[in-house]
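Milestone 3.1: sequence recovery, worked example.
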């Protein structure tokens, strides 16, 4: 059987279907550029795409006498994040202050997720934990914690540790739970939710398509071709589903970021 994936510099193509490298890091390295890897390249590409979307969709769009469909679509996305997420959750008074940040993370996470279903890339940048999920989760955590202290002062930490409206006997227990939730669980869950969903979808999609290709190209295995086609059909269905997941996870990440900021800047929460 011919080899399917050549991921190592040396491979016994006669006996191995899938050739694996000695280290998984080799899958992400670009040997022709010292110290630069695939993940860094895609990160820069994602940022450049976001800048291009905003420039051609907003700045150039406003200069046109006849609005373009692309400009109208981008403006719709911008208005959605501004009205439904920033203003709708944080409030009209303070929501616009955080709107640029929320729009930036929504577009960046969306592009990073859609790399999974982009031809010749097929690699969700969000599946690299410290590149997108953890970094953006930590930045979001810093923003809502700093905003909480800025808006409420020392009362912010006091209300978390000694929550008002809770019976006195339960305040120590609830306070500990709230402290752990706000300062540890929130950034961790925000990162893991995005990371796990994109990794799971990418692995499932890869296994289905690779398995289908193995069955179809198997030598002397004509009876396996229908099985391979079946795997491919399921893989294509998952492919379409992953597009929805990519969009949904970008929205959820942005939505939760806005919710965390809202709970920090409003004293009643």
């Amino acid at each position: 059987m011919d080899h399917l994936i050549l991921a190592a510099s040396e491979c016994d193509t006669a006996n191995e279907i899938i050739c694996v490298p000695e280290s998984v890091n080799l899958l992400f390295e670009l040997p022709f550029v010292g110290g630069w890897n695939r993940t860094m390249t895609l990160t820069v590409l994602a940022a450049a795409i976001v800048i291009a979307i905003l420039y051609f969709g907003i700045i150039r769009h406003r200069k046109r006498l006849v609005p373009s469909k692309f400009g109208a679509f981008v403006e719709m996305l911008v208005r959605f994040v501004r009205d439904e997420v920033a203003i709708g959750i944080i409030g009209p008074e303070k929501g616009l202050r955080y709107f640029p940040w929320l729009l930036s993370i929504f577009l960046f996470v969306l592009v990073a997720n859609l790399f999974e279903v982009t031809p010749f890339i097929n690699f969700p940048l969000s599946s690299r934990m410290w590149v997108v999920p953890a970094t953006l989760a930590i930045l979001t955590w810093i923003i809502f914690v700093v905003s909480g202290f800025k808006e409420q002062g020392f009362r912010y930490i006091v209300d978390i540790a000694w929550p008002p409206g809770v019976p006195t006997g339960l305040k120590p227990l609830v306070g500990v739970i709230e402290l752990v939730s706000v300062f540890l669980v929130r950034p961790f869950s925000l990162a893991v939710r995005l990371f796990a969903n994109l990794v799971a979808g990418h692995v499932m999609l890869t296994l289905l398509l690779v398995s289908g290709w193995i069955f179809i190209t198997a030598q002397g295995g004509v009876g396996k071709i229908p099985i391979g086609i079946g795997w491919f059909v399921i893989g294509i269905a998952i492919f379409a589903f992953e597009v929805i997941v990519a969009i949904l996870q970008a929205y959820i990440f942005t939505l939760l970021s806005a919710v965390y900021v809202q709970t920090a800047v409003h004293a009643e929460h």
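The first helix runs from residue 38 to 63. DSSP finds seven helices and two strands in the chain.
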